[in-house]
Structure formats: C-alpha cells, structure tokens
Predict the structure.
Amino acid sequence: MEPQTTPITPEPTAGSGRKVLVVEDEHFISELYVRALTRAGYDVTVEVDGKRGLDLAQTDKFDIILLDLMVPTITGIEVLRQLRGLPDSPKLKAKIVITTNLEQRDEIRADIERQADAYLVKAEITPRELVAFLDTIK
C-alpha cells in the first residue's frame, strides 16, 4: 500500500494572473523587473519602443503598465498623454505607473502625476520593493 500524499498548492500572491506591460528600453532594468514580477506571479510583457508600447496598452489587456519616460519613437510622456491626457483618450482598466530616473521640473512632474496612478524613481526602488508596491495596487 502506497502512502497517501496531499499535493501542496501554493498560496496565491497579489500578482497571481495580473498582467503587467513594462515599457522600458533599458534591457538590464526590464530583466530585473521581469524576474521579480514573474516570481511574484505576474504575467509580464516587455516592450522597448514607445509607439509599440502605446499600441499594446490600448488593447486594454493589462492590469498595470510600468512606463519609462525615455523610450524610443515616442516618449513615455507622449504615451501617457495618449492614454490619459487627451479628451478622447480611451478608458483603460490599467493602472499606469511611471518609472524614471530623470529629474523633472516641478510643474512637469505634477502634470505627469495628475495623469498617472503612481510615479516611481527607478534608482530609489529595488525590484522587490516594486513588487510589494504593485501588490498594493487594486
């Protein structure tokens, strides 16, 4: 007679099944984010190009968008304006989190923060802290 075993089901995490779009052209940073977020149960898509990131964001298939301000073709600020700042911007379910290392003038940063759901300075947050932060977003 074989011993009975009970399968162990992992505890669901806050990230379980949530879809994240990372618009980031720095390979090292995006790789750090992908590893940490995937380990935490998030489903991650990375795009290095601003225009293609905008196109992906407009599909409304993501729960969270991590948006770097300095990406090729169109800037993250322009992507944000297309998603949130124009009168005819689509209504997306995704929360938009700006990720940047750029210093912004106070009025520019205030304008970005009005349109985004959060604003993070990459140099001030570890991947683990990023995951913990995203886990709090509803």
